[in-house]
Design goal:
It contains four helices and no strands. By secondary structure, it is mainly alpha-helical. The protein is flat.
Length: about 120
């Protein structure tokens, strides 16, 4: 078994932190997205390693996973999980950064519903 080094993943660069985008908030959000992307890539690499190890052990491999078609129960479970995850991740930005746009969208949707009801 390979010994893993204990790396400090919370290290930050020292010195001034220039604002690249229009605001420090946008820079922070972009940094969060890039950090999450890095974590997703690590998970993808680890998943790939597991698939290859399983295939080498005579079990299923990447091709089997690619060919897998989840049944209705699995699709429903995945869909519910994804919706909750999207809400957790994107809901904060939606609610805190775009309240005016949300109010306009809600007003538009309400007006559309009213017009559609009047047409019937």
């Amino acid at each position: 078994m390979v010994e893993r080094k204990n790396l400090d993943r919370t290290a930050r660069s020292k010195g001034s932190q220039p604002v690249v985008l229009e605001s420090a908030t946008q820079d922070a959000l972009a940094g969060m997205v890039l950090a999450l992307l890095g974590e997703v890539m690590v998970l993808k690499d680890r998943l790939d390693a597991n698939e290859r190890l399983l295939k080498a052990a005579g079990l299923h491999g990447p091709e089997d996973i690619d060919a897998y078609h989840p049944d209705a129960e699995a699709r429903a479970c995945r869909g519910a999980y994804k919706q909750k995850a999207y809400e957790r991740v994107l809901g904060v930005a939606r609610d805190r950064l775009l309240p005016e746009a949300l109010a306009d969208q809600n007003a538009y949707e309400n007006e559309l519903a009213r017009v559609a009801a009047d047409a019937n």
